[in-house]
């Protein structure tokens, strides 16, 4: 920690116009904090829903990792930008502004960058997974597994931390005096942030790793996915249930990537200006604040996308958090309890398939119901039971009629043989003629 005895406070507080303080308070102090609070709740709900046993899959494992790193990014954004925007305009949270935030910034800032890097590349991995599932479905079973997805998440986290290790050494905390009070301020470590470091790592490598590579790959892969989705939608009537589910999931993740592009477009422009117009960068401070807000929005909005476009996610979410009675009143077709297409039918082959699939328990219950002769409301049997009873009444009669028809059919050749034998005896026909006629 460096010591500096000036009485000017922190450098970031000097020469700031009231209008800039108001803009920072509205964008960071109000909007970023409010959206961040909603994003934390949404990401927590996403993790709870996506980790349910019925939601277990490779893509959902990746989405859980994405929600986790987005949560870390939101927390660090609120600590670094949201809460620090309150004091300059309102005078509140002074202790946090001058004593807490300076000590956590050297650690929260690198963690925020690592979380952002991890979020970018997990979005890319999700897109690659969908590209394999949609464009190369025969290879998806081997490549898109839950165990592989866990390794992808861990590998992305390791890469993000390794890439952002130098940022732990970029800032230092110094002591200043503001209104006669000892305060702490964060400033750049000029001994570490040399001119070569800024040009190579902060400007060039950051543009390549964070924007050029992931944006180019996302654009190419999603172009292939969109083309395949359009082709599949034209033949939707001939798609199987699994193919329709993959199509719906691909559409949902296309929306996730589209929001990612929109929210990271302004940060891309701002960083480009910083690289090529560094002498005029002070005039772009409002764009920087808006970029921070858009990054927070991107990390907070995925839950809303899952609820709107993810049919299975919505069913499981409603089953977990909404009153079951409300949805049962609306009928069983849209109920979250019924997530399969092989629902119980009233009669025919669907009944036998369901009984065979569910094992001996349901068969024993059906036999017990027939023995008890249980009846539903109004003194009538339930519809499936009535169908089974009707089948048991009809089948014996049909079997008896079939046996009678077979018996009559077997008696006809015997009668013919008897008549021909009698005629042969009366007319003294040779036995060979009788054999020929019978054949």
TrEMBL record:
Pfam families: 7tm_1. Its main location: membrane. Residues 42-306 form the G-protein coupled receptors family 1 profile domain. The keyword Transmembrane helix applies. GO terms for cellular component: membrane. Keywords: Membrane, Transmembrane, Transmembrane helix. InterPro entries: GPCR-Ligand_Int, GPCR_Rhodpsn, GPCR_Rhodpsn_7TM. SMART domains: 7TM_GPCR_Srsx (SM01381). It is found in: Membrane. PROSITE patterns: G_PROTEIN_RECEP_F1_2. Residues 362-384 are annotated as: Disordered. GO terms for molecular function: G protein-coupled receptor activity. Belongs to the G-protein coupled receptor 1 family. This is G-protein coupled receptors family 1 profile domain-containing protein. The lineage of its organism: Eukaryota, Metazoa, Ecdysozoa, Arthropoda, Hexapoda.
């Amino acid at each position: 920690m460096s010591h500096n005895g000036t009485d000017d406070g922190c450098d970031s507080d000097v020469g700031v116009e009231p209008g800039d303080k108001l803009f920072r308070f509205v964008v960071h102090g109000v909007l970023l904090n409010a959206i961040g609070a909603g994003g934390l709740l949404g990401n927590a709900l996403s993790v709870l829903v996506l980790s349910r046993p019925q939601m277990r899959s490779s893509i959902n494992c990746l989405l859980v990792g994405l929600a986790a790193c987005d949560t870390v990014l939101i927390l660090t954004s609120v600590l670094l930008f949201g809460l620090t925007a309150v004091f300059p305009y309102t005078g509140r949270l002074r202790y946090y502004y001058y004593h807490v935030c300076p000590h956590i910034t050297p650690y929260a800032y690198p963690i925020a960058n690592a979380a952002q890097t991890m979020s970018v590349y997990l979005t890319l991995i999700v897109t690659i997974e969908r590209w394999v599932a949609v464009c190369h479905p025969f290879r998806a079973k081997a490549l898109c597994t839950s165990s592989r997805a866990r390794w992808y998440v861990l590998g992305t986290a390791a890469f993000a931390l390794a890439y952002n290790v130098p940022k732990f050494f970029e800032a230092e905390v110094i002591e200043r005096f503001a209104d006669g009070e000892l305060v702490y301020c964060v400033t750049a470590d000029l001994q570490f942030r040399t001119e070569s470091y800024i040009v190579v790592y902060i400007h060039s490598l950051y543009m390549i790793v964070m924007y050029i590579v992931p944006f180019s790959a996302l654009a190419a892969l999603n172009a292939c996915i969109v083309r395949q989705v359009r082709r599949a939608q034209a033949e939707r009537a001939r798609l199987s249930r699994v193919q329709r589910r993959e199509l719906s999931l691909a559409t949902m993740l296309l929306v996730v990537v589209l929001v990612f592009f929109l929210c990271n477009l302004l940060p891309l422009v701002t960083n480009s200006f910083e690289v090529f117009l560094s002498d005029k960068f002070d005039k772009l401070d409002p764009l920087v604040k808006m970029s921070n807000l858009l990054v927070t929005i991107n990390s907070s909005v995925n839950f809303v996308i899952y609820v709107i476009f993810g049919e299975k996610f919505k069913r499981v979410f409603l089953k977990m958090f909404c009153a079951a009675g409300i949805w049962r009143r609306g009928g069983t077709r849209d109920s979250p309890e019924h997530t399969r297409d092989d629902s119980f039918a009233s009669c025919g082959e669907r009944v036998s398939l369901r009984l065979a699939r569910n094992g001996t328990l349901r068969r024993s219950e059906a036999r017990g119901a027939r023995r008890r002769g249980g009846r539903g409301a109004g003194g009538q049997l339930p519809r499936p039971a009535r169908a089974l009873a009707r089948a048991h009444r009809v089948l014996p009669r049909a079997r008896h009629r079939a046996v009678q028809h077979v018996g009559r059919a077997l008696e006809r050749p015997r009668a013919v043989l008897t008549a021909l034998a009698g005629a042969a005896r009366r007319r003294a026909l040779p036995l060979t003629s009788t054999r020929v006629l019978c054949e």
